[in-house]
Amino acid sequence: MNTSSSLNLHQRLIEVLVQKGVSTKKDLEEQWETAISKDVSFRKQLIKSKIIRDLPYQKTVGSLLDLTVVERVGTLAADFQKKFTTQIPIRFAKQYLFYPTSFSKDELILAVVSPWPSIPYEEAARELGQTFSLVLATEQEILDGINRAYDRSTGSAEEAAEILEEDEELKLISELSGEETEDLLDSEDEEPIKRLMNSILFQSVKDESSDIHIDPGSHETNVRYRIDGVLHLVTQVPRQAHIPLLNRVKVMSGLDISMKNQPQDGRTMILLAGKKIDIRVSIIPTVHGEQAVLRLLNQSLGIIELDALGIPPQIANRIKEMIQQPHGIILVTGPTGSGKTTTLYSSLNQLDASQKNIVTIEDPVEYRISDYGQMQVNEKVGVTFAKGLRAMLRQDPDVIMVGEIRDAETAQIAIQASLTGHLVLSTLHTNDAASSVIRLIDMGVEPFLVASTVTAVLAQRLVRKICLHCKESYHPSSEEMDKLALPPEILSNFKGILWRGRGCEQCLHTGYQGRLGVYELLIVNDQVRRQIIRTTDASTLQQVAMEAGMVGLKIDCGEKVIRGITTVEEMLRVVFT
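^ protein-secreting ATPase, sequence as received from the core. Prediction below:
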């Protein structure tokens, strides 16, 4: 397109936008000049200035150029998708923002952000052996289509390990490149170890695993994923690849590759199909070599709403009420990996951060929220939970979230913060709600202080949900029902049918897909408060709380079994000790 045609188009475009009431002619011409000075497109400048959104802009351009605008680019047929992703590099498709929205033997229809310059589209069509025509789409829709296509076309960790096993140059690998700075789907690196590590990371995100375990053995290294709380063997790596693979993990997370006999902790972030994945890395020495565990946190998922966690409505409503209180301590308890931090952030999300000063101290900061003041524990430089919490009290906070109460000093400061008019949220590692209260007393906090500051304790576990793709009903045996030992109030809703997963490809033949929580909420009312001051016996306190109306973990989980959300086996695995 020549310069005069471009000018004519932009003038016509401005006229149409003025007619539609998008902005004034003067403002639009100023935006045009700004776009030229910044060397960006007129479209990007208008969207960045929030004058117009991408889709209405594309529809306006489409009407001027007589081009169709598609709102959804759709999914390619498997054979053509493979051809497209094999022959067209993802970097090229993303750089020039084009994606095939339709394909036939005669013609390829490319969705593009701009019809100019046309040379990249001509090159892509020539590479695919097709003629082509153009339609318009939004930038985000095209990027989503590209990510979906290349995501599905990326090889698995198993395939990468097989290639690695046959690689003759493996023994010659001595150095690995620096930190990840690009989307893993963009990677064109041919180093076998990099390909293997990228495939391991890619597949773990695709399988929605929470952790990657790289465990050395005497003959080979096992790579396992923790999916829905259970470990699954994914692939085995040849023994000679173990040290290069661990070095790759260390380089990515900024650790010392020369240190082999000491534990190390690190952190890194990767991009995968445009999604940010935070990774916490822990490496320890073992008799067979160094063992690594990588914990994955998908930042793009954001904070889950409180009602979507599986919390019973009556408990969720009480939490929403208590989070609005001006002071007190709310504790969330449960084993490691039971979703305590997620529950805390879902609770904080109920507050208006523009009207309250919310500060957190964590190890590490798992959800990065711009509206909160978030502090990272760093014991190497002396920033502990206790010191950080003490410093936070000088920041005029309204709400303080402490990642974990680990010691007596942190517990005492949290108590003092509550007494001086702050709402404190934190976690403890105990088996049930009543044990958390006793744990604070065991740490040295006076019982009367615990009774006067702690307002509630939420205990939780995570159970696997039955896969909806292979869910089937069955009639349980009397033996199974005896194992459940459910109270009469739950059995009154029982229709004689329970549910389980048969196992399918969608759930990796486990019968389960996804997890949700089971909960019990101990409200510290007058009756419970008197018991806290009187005794340090957790079972007695639990009994008093149940008499005061607390619904136990077992009852909440039992209701989810009866409703067909989870299974008897999960209840026996998670709730019973």
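Residues 192-298 form a domain with the Beta-Lactamase fold (CATH 3.30.450.90).
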